[in-house]
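Q: Hi! First time asking for a complex rather than a single chain. Here are the components, and I think there are two in total. Is that enough to go on?
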Amino acid sequence: MSFLRLVTIAAAVLSAALHAALATDEPYLQKRAAMVRDQIEREGVTDPRVLAAMRDVPRHLFVSPSFRAKAYEPYPLPIGEGQTISQPYIVGFMTQILRLKETDRVLEVGTGSGYQAAVAAKLAAEVYSVEILESLAVRSRRTLSDLGFRNVVVRQGDGYYGWEEKAPFDAIIVTCAGGHIPPPLLRQLGNGGRMIMPVGGPFMTQNLVFIEKDARGSITHRNVLPVAFVRLLGH
Amino acid sequence: MSTAEPRDRGDLVFAGAKAERVVPAVFFLSAATLANEIVLIRLLSFRFWPHFVPLIVSQAMLGFGVAGVALQIVRRRVERSPGRLFAWMVLLAAPAFDLAFRASQFVSFDPFLLLWDPVAWPRFGVFFFLLAVPFFLSGCAMAIPFAFLRFRPGPVYAASFAGSAAGALVALPFLMLAPTGWLLRLPLALGAVACAFVLSDKGGGLRKGRAAALCAVLFLLVIPPADLKLSPYKDLAAVRNLPGAREIASRFGISGDYRAVFAPGVHSAPGLSIRFAGEIPPQATLFADGEQRGIVPKDGGRTPPAYLGYFPAVLPYRLFEHPRVLQLGLRGTEGVLTAAANGASSVTIVEPAQELVRLVREDLSEFSGGWPGSLPVEIREEGARNFLARDRRIFDVIEAADISSATFSSLGVHATGETFLLTREGIRAALARLGEGGLLAFSGWLKAPPRENVKILRTIRAELSAARLVPAADRVAAIHGWGTFSVVARRTPFHPAEIDRVRRFCSDYGYSMVWPAAGAEAGGGAEERALREAVSDAMTGPPGERETELFDLSPVTDDSPYFHRFLRLRTLPEFKRLLGSQWIPFVEWGIVFLVLSLGVSLVLAAMLLLLPAAFVRDGTGEAATISVAGYFSALGLAYMLVELTFLKAGILILGDTIRAAGLAIGGFSFFSGIGSAVSGRWESERAMKRVFAGIAVCVVAGFVILSAAASPLLARGWAMRTAAFVATLAPAAFLMGIPFPAAISRLAAVGGSAIPFAWAVNGFFSVAGASLASIGALWLGFRWTVVIGAVLYVMAGLLFPRVGREIRS
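A: Yes, that's all I need. Here is the structure of the assembled complex.
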């Protein structure tokens, strides 16, 4: 067989494979677009960068195959170990309120599926994510790596203490509810930094609390949204 | 139904042996069945949440009902050898108590997912069905003697009821002796005793197959029990998952399963001030039936941790120096350490769970460092309402901390739990124990829209106003932090200087003052403004229910002590409209599960009871069917409404759910059993008229007496309270045991073909009645639920003369 024929055949095979891959992803693309349009943009999340990030990140690849068909529905889904992936609106809301810049260094507490970290990684320079459960840390690290997210580092550990070595952070996002704002996280928030965290009891509605540290290090806070989150383990 | 004598050999049926073998077998099997019910309440509370009382009762009723229908469907086969079938039903029921539960643990069901995942529904159905299987087998065994062996219903029914009572009485002390995972040993053992009576045939010879079956039961008794699989959403499951987590102490008893787990990843400090910059020491978490109950800081007794001064709940200590403190409920050691760190002169803790007290005071003393040496600490092992009624001491601060939690809900997660401390009567009792300037303090999680804090403010205001301590608004202060609130109230108005102290406390610790409004800061977001408006309305607005409110925030009373029931059915459509797809997390989980379990149980009951029964009806006319259906459905519903309402009302007097369940279910079973045993004397229509009238009178009078006597009884000892509780239900329960066997006798006299249908209908409405009793208590109150039960008995009385008469004619 001539070289040219071989190349032609290889190209055809690759093209077919690519087409097949795209075709497989096609229903999810549409669902993702609909999710962003109907659940996020329509509900008041209007930052174009955040919307673009959420259109980009394949949420369905962050849940188990048995839940993929529901990945773009407006509710959280179990990811094992009693934890959940937050509903899309909450991810969009929390990301928007942090006003992430391309130069920002972000700390995430509670990696879970890794989806929130992936969205943040589209908008910021670096994302450091801590997950206390080893199985979830391993799985999310693999998923993020497989999807090519090179600016996310996942570590297994107690997120209550943040990530001292990488502090200060421009933004901190806590994705599971706690009864109070951990003092170590407040210390690791840089001047001019923003933090968002659900605060409240388990199995009840909590409040998303937004915290800002000004240039002098003074902290202000306000409740921004009642939500229902899986609890921060140990908290 | 054939009246021919059974033909096969190897049968129990011969005159002399019948009563000797069958009646004790029924007795012990009934004991096993009721013990299984009580044990399942504990097991399912531990695995999931304690909403399962009506569910378990529904399962039992479903099993019994399906038994009757199944016997009708295969009646020709049963008639060939009813004695043998009876023996095998007993032999299968015994191991089923253990095996059904083991099997149910393999069903991947979690009630938490019911609202999220449609697949959870059929799983729930399978789970429900599996746990009903032992009740089905028991029901078959108990029905065969009078449906096929031609026993008089009265003595068999009496043995069944007496056995049930015995099962309840044995189950309660067994809960103190056996770890949670071993509890199913009790119904298994009682079932094994029942098996011993059915091993031989009519000639007295041992049947090898049956003996082998008994050996299998005994084998189950000695092998280790199945590990209990906790829902991953339980607090205990979550903490166990943390790296380095290990259980350091545990105790079990009637009131619950208590464990202490230490995990380095635990940092519990709900509502901690943003001003706190220090460290939270290592903590052990206490669990009651798998739910978090309190925290024990390591070495806290030696050096009270600094963080304990940084909560909104510390407010009363800023208003009263060196108070004599009463804490309602033991929250680990944090409560005492907080009091010690804030200058208390003495602390008295009231906690009914003895096992929890011993766990904290003895088992964890080395970890915790004991109590702070300088502070006198006393723990009283009794219910809060009992203590407040009995102890005449005066206190400067009475704390009810974390009112959003399981501590104040005897049945656990909120809405369906009785909270007798947070009723108007409970608040009244607490206010009466305050000294001059003394403070009543509540704290809990702050929700949006606000609920607990507003409801407790309204309750306090109602009681202050009733005591003519007005304006109530001058006697209350309310603040909040990140996610927690604190409310303090007293009988005398606060001075301006004291309000200044509250304001400074808030300023120093980063909290917000909400009431008095004049002292509060202006501004804040929409949510803050909504909270202030709600609090202001609670303190100064018109009293009474607000029609336009999304939630029910009216004060509750002992007649419907469901403080955490906020859902209003009539505003549910508006609720969903406002919240759209986000409504699910805001719905009260307890009520949702109650309604869902009612729905699933009714679907199963319709499929397994009514449908088959409708197809196998034979020879009975339409009118007869309607009378039979009406009569037995009224009985099934009414019995459950009355029994479960007495159970719930008994929680206040007896102090906890399991005791109330044991005594109510056992008491009703026992006295109804006696009624059934003597029912043959009153089967005439004239006598039965008096019976039904007597039921209605005794049910209502018994409940009225119980309610009226509650307050004086609370101050009495446990023996007196138990005796009084049983005395109020005994007359009604005795009479309530008569109508069912009396009607069954009438149906048996005309051939008995309608008996399985009657049994099925009764079972269906008993299934419904178990959940409807809870729903009635939540929305109508105990009184009206009991009255409805009494009315249903009157209606049944009107139908009684028609039962069997149309068939005969």
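A: Residues 231-235 of chain A have pLDDT under 50 and may be disordered. Let me know if you'd like any chain examined more closely.
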